[in-house]
Design brief:
The complex is a heterodimer.
Chain A lengths: L1 H20 L1 H27 L4 H5 L1 H16 L5 H16 L4 H15 L3 E2 L2 E2 L12 H20 L12 H8 L1 H19 L6 H17 L2 H16 L4 H25 L10 H7 L10 H10 L3 H15 L4 H6 L9 H20 L19 H6 L4 H49 L1
Antiparallel strand pairs in A: 1-2
Helix pairs in contact in A: 2-4, 2-5, 2-12, 5-6, 5-7, 6-7, 6-9, 7-9, 10-12, 11-12, 11-17, 14-15, 14-19, 17-19
Chain B lengths: L1 E6 L4 H16 L4 E6 L3 H4 L5 E4 L7 H11 L3 E3 L2 H5 L3 H15 L1
Parallel strand pairs in B: 1-2, 1-3, 3-4
Helix pairs in contact in B: 1-5
The chains are: A mainly alpha, B alpha/beta.
């Protein structure tokens, strides 16, 4: 068993290193991080704009006016999150080469707009906001990569205008960016023209059709989701932060699916996707942390006999409420513990299936596209993520009970083991004391 | 003595920070201890004398190692057992041992 674990760790560790230290994946993750405060602001406003029963309380007309007044807040942040992600990725990727990063962000944004259709239903000079949100997610990410790479390449090739000494630094810096930016954006203009000659009409449309649509269709399915969840669990089993590793691959898909639901939710239409960013963050991770360890904390708190397990329940309780669970993962321990491997892998898959099915058949509303921070406590997170629906919180309660039952026998065995060890250790010390006394 | 802890979001290490501060107070050790998310850590390293990484982020050692080398400060992975127990004293001892070895 130990040999086997060692072999597996030797396989997983380099994967973790590659995933987390890959320059582009790091820029992608940090790009989303930059957009996050804006996304959360927009989400909060969506929640406030959709308070339950408010329409019955103040009347439909007043409610419509109220929603219209708050609408621009999320429309300018959450609904066009692609823009901020693009700037973030462009900035972070350029910075990773040690090149003036702000220009990397700006040039990525400009490159993206160049590739974006600038007419809508025959009206010139408009950019459809859908291309700045869900639809433009993939093309935006690819654009940001390409723009930042081209820009830093031209800068590093020294294709810049050198100013004579004595010119103020700010002035010379603005000129030094000129040629790399001009070259980069020329490439994007050429790409735009090339695509306008194809049946796809625009690069946006091309990437959406050949890449984003198939990938998100795959990612929205249950099989891909189960694979993602299992990968998270397996990495964690070896004490590696599975969530951020899997996120760096799946986030673009999950966010794109999320945005689709958001626009449908705001338009009052049927929500297209079950699997979204919030499906994972609220209904899988948001139950005490990766592996849904809140159920474990509850068990330890209520039923443990051994001092070790009781103590762990106390240490793991408060952070577990906010979905921080390293004390449980390293303290139980979950890592490298063959006894708990079964519930560790089975429970999240069971919960993923339950959540998927109950949402698919309409028993529980699908996630509304609101981004709920992963530290939001259970029940509140389920309520918010489903667009202020109590069924979301009830589903979490039900899932919590299921996880509790799955873990029950395994925790009992573990606790008894600890308890026996403690009793034996106590016996030994009393024996030693007695010997000393008699001797 | 400035001790920096790094993990993915700086959440779980911040649990440890408060325990380490308690341990430092008990021992009468003067120490500045704080936690940082992994994207902020390379910047924060400049203010630190020693860097400790959460075991779940041990795949960051190589990357942070480069920055720590440039700053000439030691770094190590926090022991998984001490991390699970949120054992402030053990991790504080670990940090002080690293600093002493360097001297």
């Amino acid at each position: 068993m130990n040999r086997f674990m060692e072999v597996l760790e030797n396989i997983l560790m380099p994967i973790a290193e590659k995933l987390n230290n890959n320059r582009h994946l790091t820029a992608l993750r940090d790009g989303f991080l930059i957009a996050l405060p804006l996304i959360i602001f927009g989400s909060i406003l969506v929640v406030i704009a959709n308070f339950p029963f408010l329409d019955q309380l103040i009347g439909e007309d007043a409610y419509a006016a109220y929603q219209a007044a708050l609408g621009p807040a999320s429309a300018s942040t959450l609904s066009i999150m692609g823009l901020f992600v693009i700037i973030g990725i462009g900035y972070k990727l350029t910075a990773s080469y040690g090149v003036e990063a702000l220009y990397g962000g700006v040039v990525a944004l400009a490159g993206f707009i160049i590739l974006t259709p600038q007419t809508f239903e025959g009206v010139e000079g408009v950019i459809p906001t859908s291309t700045l949100g869900a639809e433009g997610m993939f093309v935006g990410i690819l654009t940001a990569f390409l723009a930042a790479e081209l820009y830093r390449y031209f800068v590093q090739k020294n294709l810049t205008i050198k100013m004579p000494a004595g010119v103020p630094e700010a002035v010379s810096r603005s000129f030094s960016a000129l040629i790399p930016i001009a070259l980069t954006l020329s490439v994007f203009l050429a790409i735009r023209i090339l695509f306008s000659l194809t049946p796809f009409d625009s690069a946006q449309n091309f990437i959406y059709t050949v890449l984003q649509e198939p990938l998100t269709a795959l990612g929205s399915g249950l099989p891909a989701t189960i694979i993602a969840v299992l990968m998270i669990q397996i990495f964690w089993f070896f004490g590696l932060h599975g969530q951020i590793l899997v996120n760096s691959v799946f986030d673009p898909i999950w966010y794109a699916l999320n945005e689709q639901n958001l626009s449908a939710f705001q338009a009052g239409e049927e929500l297209p996707n079950v699997v979204t960013k919030q499906f994972i963050d609220t209904f899988i991770v948001g139950m005490g942390g990766s592996g849904m360890t809140l159920a474990i904390v509850l068990w330890l708190f209520m039923l443990a006999r051994s001092k070790q397990a009781k103590q762990l329940g106390k240490v793991g309780g408060p952070p577990g409420f906010f979905n921080v669970n390293e004390p449980i993962i390293f303290g139980l321990p979950i890592i490298m513990n063959p006894l708990i491997l079964i519930p560790w892998l089975v429970a999240p898959v069971v919960i993923a299936v339950i959540t998927y099915v109950t949402m698919s058949i309409g028993l529980v509303p699908k996630p509304a596209g609101i981004i709920v921070p992963w530290t939001t406590p259970i029940f509140l997170s389920g309520f918010l993520a489903t667009g202020n629906a109590w069924q979301g919180a009830v589903l979490q309660l039900f899932n919590l009970a299921v996880v509790f039952i799955i873990w029950f026998p395994f925790l009992r065995i573990l606790d008894r083991q600890y308890f026996r060890n403690e009793v034996e250790a106590e016996k030994e010390t009393t024996n030693a004391d007695n010997k000393q006394k008699s001797g | 003595m400035n001790i920096l802890l790094a993990c993915s979001a700086g959440m779980s290490t911040s649990l440890l920070v408060s325990k380490m501060k308690e341990a430092a107070d008990e021992q009468g050790v003067q120490a500045e201890i704080w936690a940082a998310a992994q994207d902020k850590a390379p910047e924060e390293i400049k203010k630190a004398d020693v860097l400790l990484i959460g075991p779940q982020m041990r795949f960051m050692k190589k990357k942070f190692g480069k920055v720590a080398d440039e700053q000439g400060i030691p770094l190590d992975i926090i022991d998984a057992v001490a991390y699970g127990r949120v054992d402030g004293k053990a991790v504080l001892d670990h940090a002080m041992k690293l600093l002493n070895e360097q001297k």
